[in-house]
Amino acid sequence: MAAQLVRKENVGSIFYRVTGLLRGNQMKWNQRPLWYDIYAMYPPLLDTGWNAKFPKEKEPVNSILYAEDVVRAEFYKKIRSLGAISVENLETISLSQFFVDIYSELETQNPKLEPQQLFDMAVKEVEKKGIELNIERNKVSEIKNSNSS
Asked: InterPro entries under this entry (predicted)?
């Protein structure tokens, strides 16, 4: 009977099943999944079990975007090519994170400015530091200039 319950999805989440395997010595501690420690340290805010209540069709969904996500999305929309990003090198930050940091500094210094003005100021600050950004607006102006010739 117990074997039948363990195989059902509604008995518990995968986290609790893995926890049971670890406690019962069915799985060695060094064989635990990569996500296990992260899930244990930062459990979800809402219940993710089989009987979790999800919003209905017309109910509003909670936003999980951070303010920096909007800035980063705008950055990736306007920048054509960033090149390769090394995820193994922890000493350097990505260009988008560098841009978001500068944008955040400017936002705290100038809270009354519009987001587009802050974005343009951040682009100028990054370019002052010697990093050339290939922005889409340059491509659009090149197309307009070639059509008018």
From this structure: mS23_dom, mS23_dom_met, Ribosomal_mS23_met
For 79, the token pair is 């920048």
Number of domains comprising the chain:
2
- Cα separation, 90 vs 83, in Å, equals 17
Measured in whole angstroms, how far is the alpha carbon of residue 97 from the centre of its chain? 11
**Domain ranges, residue 17:** 1-59
**Predicted structure pTM score:** 0.53
- Do 130 and 82 belong to one domain? yes
b (16+ CB within 10 A) / e for 9-37: eeebbebeebbeeeeeeebeeeeeeeebe
| Residue 101 and residue 41 in one domain | no
What tens digit of pLDDT does each residue of 83-119 get? 777 778 888 888 888 999 999 999 999 999 999 999 9
Residues 141 and 81 in one domain: yes
